[in-house]
Amino acid sequence: MGVHLNTGTDAGGGRAATDLTRRPRRGSRLGRREAIAGYLFITPAMVGLVGLIAFPVLFAFYVSLTNYNFIHMHFVGLANYSKLLHDPLFWKSLGVTWYYVLVSIPLNLTVGLVLAMMLNRKIRGIGLFRTVYYLPSLVGGVAVSLLFLWLFNPNFGLINYLLSLLHIHGPQWLYSQRWVIPAIILMSLWGVGGSMLINLAALQGVPTELEEAARIDGASRVRIIWHVTLPMISPVILFNLILGIIGSFQIFTQAYVMTSGGPNNASLFYVLYLYENAFEFFKMGYASAMAWIMLVMLLILTLLVFRSSGAWVFYQSEIRGKEEAG
Amino acid sequence: MMRGGPSSRHVGTRAGDALATVVLSVGAVALLMPLVWMVSTALKGTAFVMLFPPQWIPHPFTLSPFLNAWKTMRFLRSLRNTVFLTVSNVVGVELTASMAAFAFARLRFPGRDLLFLILLSTMMLPATVLLIPTFILFKDIHWVNTYLPLIVPSFLGGGAFNIFLMRQFFTGVNSEIFDAARVDGCGYWSMYARIMLPSAKPAMLIVFVFTFIGSWNDFMGPLIYLNNTKLYPLTLQLQVFVGRHVVAWNDLMAGTLMVAIVPIIIFFFAQKNFTQGVVFTGIR
């Protein structure tokens, strides 16, 4: 009886359905008390959801249709958007950011995955290795930026010193239009421990029997990784990919602290330009239009990634479904 | 070697293990080198910072960069500010995220799953979109130049990620104790406070570590909302420091070290009890 009361709930799944049988009916006094308690418990989070997320997103769109400098607000329609399309710095910041995203994401994903696989082996000192690889991701953006500002110093920095040991004359790094983005990408790799950790947790969830069975069947190590391990953790790779795209697109602190967008706007990331428009030039409407363009762009990108994921992400529940069907 | 033949968990060969050890060792040295370099620079006198080739072990060794950084950053004051912000955020997130998670995991009310789904989808919203409207909102209610914009959001759910993480954990807590409490007529608040929270310590710890580190390292929030230097947390002070003393690398590295070391210490304390501890200790 009670099971039928489980209307509209699918997230809870079977487990919830069974223990709900012992629960009071929704229409009853107890059920109503439970519902009221439920709403009270989520009240702070819902106030946050509406007041700090839903309303601001919509308000940002409204602001993007105006010129607002904290004193006057004029409605200008889509003028900010059309101005953006003719703003060379907007296109520059978009290009710089895409360059960073397109190189750093595949690099970080691959390195994070390979590291996680190596750190999933039973070798001596593995706990120490895992800690060392995770350690840099505990250091915050400002501290990392200042540290790398020093490391990348063309004359006295550690990196060019090490290169000189190999008889390589190191570039000007953050002071070079050509090398500033590669430098920031290299720096992002220092924090690869975060995604490594998520991958590692996923790898530990892969049942050993599957890999063992494949090995007994004579599959090579490469084939096991390609046909067993990677498909098993592909949902986590998807998770890392999507959050990685959204996160890297919003890179700000590094450029703000190290380069202020220079040299010659070569590291003018999208969010840095947005920040300058909003909080240095007080062009709130213009900056909001940038924010909305970013939102739509990332939304489309996320949808595309999800769409493509049908082809490469594998959910364990799919097997079960097929077995039951077959 | 720890591996024990066929009973070993992971697919891999002895040669593979040896290769992995070599690669991991090289990588570990490369990752640690910047940190060693930071410490080394912070212990040098100004005359010895710009030597080529550089000194790895400072000689003579000095602590004066730390004293300079201490003074320039107004260390005690900024530390107090950072600690205040961090503690407030941790309290807010732990309290309100766990409340929401409890309701989403264990209570039934109309619209529950839809609301949870909407909440989850906000994880994919780029935070930058909220920057300007939230600023305008807080400016209009005169909260700029106070800590309120940096603290109050933590008391309003503390973010979808934390709620999701705790909900997953709460859903897995043994439901028998819970049902027994229900039969005994235990109120919902005591179910949450007396049964759920104590049994969810691992999830609370993960949320603690992430929130602590995130708040300690936060830069953009204070940058936007605080103009009064008396209110500056460590991250902002560190950045101000650069503008004024761009050449004093030893002082700057000493300051950076003093700010960066705390999350590392917190992590080492928490690590023992981290659920992800399995990941670090290599047990399993």
Task: Report what the structure shows.
The complex is a heterodimer of chains A (326) and B (284). With 326 residues, chain A is mainly alpha-helical. Chain A has helices spanning 13-20, 29-64, 79-85, 88-119, 126-134, 141-151, 158-165, 180-190, 193-204, 208-216, 221-249, 253-258, 270-280, 284-312, 316-325, and strands at residues 66-68, 73-75. Chain A folds into 2 domains: 2-64, no CATH class; 82-325, Orthogonal Bundle (MetI-like fold). Chain A is 70% helix and 2% strand. In chain A, a hairpin with a 4-residue loop joins strand 1 (66-68) and strand 2. The longest helix of chain A has 36 residues, at 29-64. Chain A is globular and about 75 Å long. Mean pLDDT of chain A is 86; it is low at 1-22. The longest helix of chain B has 32 residues, at 75-106. Chain B has helices at residues 14-42, 46-49, 64-72, 75-106, 112-121, 128-140, 148-151, 160-172, 175-183, 188-199, 201-217, 220-225, 234-244, 249-271, 277-281. Mean pLDDT of chain B is 86; it is low at 1-9. Chain B has a single domain (69-281), classed as MetI-like fold, CATH 1.10.3720. Chain B is globular and about 75 Å long. By secondary structure, chain B is mainly alpha-helical. At the A-B interface, helix 1, helix 2, helix 4, helix 5 and helix 6 of A face helix 1, helix 4, helix 5, helix 6 and helix 9 of B.
